[in-house]
């Protein structure tokens, strides 16, 4: 992107008052600037949940992780974020009235690809709904019951069962069985509950 | 396209366009509201201090009402 295009994008993002749109436009701009240097990023956490669910969950910080390369030196991070007028660092910055965190290598165990959004300033990659769902189910019960995570999981399940988000339920089960999660009974229970509430069949009920 | 309500699905294996993603916002919000409270933003986190400083005591921008999506 040329400097004047970046400036135009920053002006658009700065005046954006819708938190979901602000997150995704900012993710699009950050992704474009890093991609031009050969660095691929992916949106994780609350911003990704918001993309899939419109769940009114996201706060004022955008979390992104490195896909490739898996490490990026601090000087390069500062230079790239400097191109979009960011302040702070070396892992979190303030830009366009928002915070951006770049958290290191993405943690993903899913075999499904990252989802992609053709956003205004270029493609945004988002961590897969399968990874997000199993992670939220785990957080909803360990180390202590955590209601916001359960709400996120329920919304993700609902939009998927309603045909609004393509979810690979076999992959979700595989992830839930893995030693890194070991959460299959909780997953099956919450999917069954949401399916019942929506009047739809559970993908885990034969 | 989701035949149930003509909302574009967020697909796997190909990008979703900005326009299609926007078209599905309201339907996704309404679906989620059937199984969880409308607003589920956490009340606190390790980022509280910086967030509340930037957002006038809140943890982020206010959400659009469902009917405005």
Primary descriptors:
heterodimer; A: alpha+beta; Beta Polymerase, domain 2; two-stranded antiparallel sheet; 49% helix; B: 69 residues
Tell me what you see in this structure.
The complex is a heterodimer of chains A (206) and B (69). With 206 residues, chain A is of the alpha+beta class. Chain A contains 8 helices and 7 strands; from the N terminus they run H-H-E-H-E-H-E-E-E-E-E-H-H-H-H. In chain A, the strands form 2 sheets. Chain A has a 5-stranded mixed beta sheet with strand order 1-2-5-4-3. Chain A has a two-stranded antiparallel ribbon with strand order 6-7. The radius of gyration of chain A is 18 Å and the shape is elongated. The N and C termini of chain A lie far apart (51 Å). The model of chain A has no long low-confidence stretch (mean pLDDT 96). Chain B has a domain of 47 residues. Chain B contains 3 helices and 1 strand. The longest helix of chain B has 9 residues. Chain B is elongated, with a radius of gyration of 16 Å.
Number of strands of chain A: 7
Terminal Cα separation of chain A, in Å? 51 Å
In percent, how helical is the residue content of chain A? 40-55%
What's the number of extended β-strand segments of chain B?
Answer: 1
How many structurally independent domains of chain A? Answer: 2
Mean pLDDT of chain A: 96
Instruction: Supply Rg of chain A.
Output: 18 Å
The CATH class designation of the largest domain in chain A is: Alpha Beta
Order of helices and strands of chain A: HHEHEHEEEEEHHHH
**Biggest β-sheet description of chain A:** 5 strands, mixed
Q: Uncertain segments of chain A of ≥5 residues (pLDDT<50)?
A: none
Please specify the SSE layout and strand pairing.
The complex is a heterodimer of chains A (206) and B (69).
Chain A: H1 3-15, H2 19-35, E1 40-43, H3 45-53, E2 61-68, H4 74-82, E3 87-88, E4 92-95, E5 98-105, E6 115-119, E7 122-126, H5 129-141, H6 147-161, H7 169-177, H8 184-198
Parallel strand pairs in A: 2-5
Antiparallel strand pairs in A: 1-2, 3-4, 4-5, 6-7
Helix pairs in contact in A: 1-2, 5-6, 5-7, 6-8
Chain B: E1 16-17, H1 18-23, H2 25-33, H3 48-54
């Amino acid at each position: 992107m040329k400097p004047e295009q970046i400036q135009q994008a920053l002006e658009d993002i700065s005046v954006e008052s819708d938190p979901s749109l602000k997150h995704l436009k900012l993710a699009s701009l950050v992704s474009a600037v890093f991609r031009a240097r050969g660095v691929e990023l992916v949106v994780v956490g609350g911003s990704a949940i918001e993309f899939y669910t419109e769940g009114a969950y996201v706060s004022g910080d955008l979390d992104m992780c490195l896909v490739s390369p898996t490490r990026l030196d601090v000087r390069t991070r500062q230079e790239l974020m400097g191109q979009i007028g960011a302040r702070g660092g070396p892992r979190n910055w303030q830009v366009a009235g928002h915070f951006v965190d770049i958290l290191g290598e993405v943690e993903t165990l899913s075999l499904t690809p990252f989802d992609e959004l053709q956003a205004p300033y270029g493609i945004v990659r988002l961590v897969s709904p399968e990874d997000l769902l199993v992670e939220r189910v785990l957080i909803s019960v360990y180390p202590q019951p955590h209601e916001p995570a359960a709400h996120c999981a329920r919304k993700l399940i609902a939009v998927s069962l309603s045909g609004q988000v393509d979810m690979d339920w076999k992959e979700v089960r595989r992830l839930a069985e893995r030693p890194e999660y070991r959460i299959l009974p909780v997953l099956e229970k919450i999917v069954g509950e949401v399916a019942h509430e929506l009047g739809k069949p559970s993908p885990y009920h034969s | 396209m989701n035949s149930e309500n003509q909302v574009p699905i967020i697909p796997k294996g190909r990008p979703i366009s900005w326009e299609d993603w926007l078209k599905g916002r309201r339907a996704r919000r309404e679906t989620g509201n059937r199984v969880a409270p409308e607003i589920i933003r956490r009340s606190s986190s390790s980022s509280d201090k910086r967030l509340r400083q930037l957002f006038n005591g809140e943890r982020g921008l206010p959400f659009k009402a469902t009917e405005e999506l």
